[in-house]
Structures are given as C-alpha cells and as structure tokens.
From TrEMBL:
Residues 37-81 form the HD domain. Coiled coil: none annotated. It comes from the Bacteria. CDD domains: HDc. This is HD domain-containing protein.
Length: 87
C-alpha cells in the first residue's frame, strides 16, 4: 500500500462512494498530482457535502459525481502548463 500524505492517510477507503471507479479516481489523483494537490482534492471532497447541506442542496447532489468532481478537478493542471506556452 502506498504511503499517502496526512489528509489522504486519514481518509478511510470504506468512506469512498460505492461506485466501482471511486478507488480508481482517488488512485489517479494520488499518482498524478503532488501530495499537496492530492490532499487539496480530498479536502474539497470532504467539505463539499457540508457546503451542499448548508445550502439545502443535499437532495439534489449525487454523491458519486460530487466525489469525482472534487477529487479529479485538478488532474492535469500541472502537466498542461507547457501546452499553453509557459516555460
């Protein structure tokens, strides 16, 4: 098993959405992003349901899609900087 940074090491895999791709999405984030960015993505997932509840949107939120959107929202950002002419 890989060693994850602090936020990821405290995220029990049992708490992941039951969608079969959830573990793959988390593994992709942790393998492709820096630990700082991966932790940011996991924190986004942890806080997003709280925000939805605060805004009374829990009935409208698909938790699996929310997980995918938050955990994968920064995939490729670092890698694509050269594609836009950045040094």
């Amino acid at each position: 098993m890989r060693t994850f940074s602090m936020a990821l090491s405290r995220t029990p895999r049992a708490a992941l959405p039951s969608a079969p791709w959830a573990t793959d999405a988390l593994d992709l984030t942790t393998s492709e992003e820096t630990p700082t960015v991966a932790n940011h993505s996991v924190r986004s997932w942890i806080f997003a349901p709280m925000l939805a509840e605060n805004k009374n949107l829990t009935d409208e939120v698909d938790e699996s899609l929310l997980f995918a959107a938050t955990v994968l929202h920064d995939i490729g950002v670092r890698r694509n900087t050269h594609a836009h002419g950045a040094p």
